[in-house]
Amino acid sequence: MENCEVVTSRAKSFSPSDPLLHWDAKLLPDIAGGQYRVDRIAVIISGGGVDKLLAVPVIGRGTGEEQANAYLSTLDDWQLRAQVWGLVFDTTSSNTGLSMGACTLIERALGTDLVWIACRQFKACFEVMLSAVFSVTFRTSSRPDVALFKHIKKQWPFINREVFTPASDDLFISDDM
Question: How would you label 63-82 residue by residue, b for 16+ Cβ within 10 Å and e otherwise?
């Protein structure tokens, strides 16, 4: 993770050499405060010794088609569609299906054959990467008590929980990110 770059801006000039598109989907609690879980996909591009987290969009369902659309949209946002030459993914059928798998659909949309790098240990790689992003962002340590959570715990009695506005996904999508 030494070469992991935390994204602080959407520099449209980002142009990795020989980029690989990495992704992993996960069912997570809705950050908008809902009681349901939502499918989110971490989309990462790597190349030239840099790994860059591009987006973590929500999709309606975990189908290959929905996933492929999310990846392609992210590539378009970053103007990287024409540069990708390989895909790194876990071996679920939504990724590997020959007719409706995300990899097949991405290749069709890009109009080219791509290198497929299937990894059974892929989820562990993303957990390590996302853990590193969290640690850098919230300045965590190896101690069992996390300063951010201690602060929230201390302030909790003073928070009016009857009147609140839940976070929305729009807070995480901006040209400033």
Answer: bbebbbbbbbebbebbebbe
Residue (of 9, 8, 87) closest to 44 by Cα position:
87
Cα distance between residue 26 and residue 101, in whole Å? 17
- CATH code where residue 146 lies: 3.30.420.40
Between 2-6, 15-19, 110-114, 153-157, the lowest mean confidence (pLDDT) is in 2-6
Range of the domain at 102: 4-172
User: What is the token pair recorded at 101?
Assistant: 């798998």
Q: Residue 134 domain-assigned?
A: yes
Q: How far apart are CA 171 and CA 16, in angstroms?
A: 27
Q: How many structural domains compose the chain?
A: 1
Work out the percent of the chain whose per-residue pLDDT is above 70.
64
Candidates 4, 134, 3, 22; CA nearest to 74 is 22
pTM for this model (two decimals): 0.59
pLDDT band at 11; cut points 50, 70, 90 = very low
Residue 177 domain-assigned (yes or no) = no
Interatomic CA distance for residues 164 and 119, integer angstroms: 42
Contact between 90 and 119 (Cβ < 8 Å) = yes
Here the tokens at position 58 are 């929500």
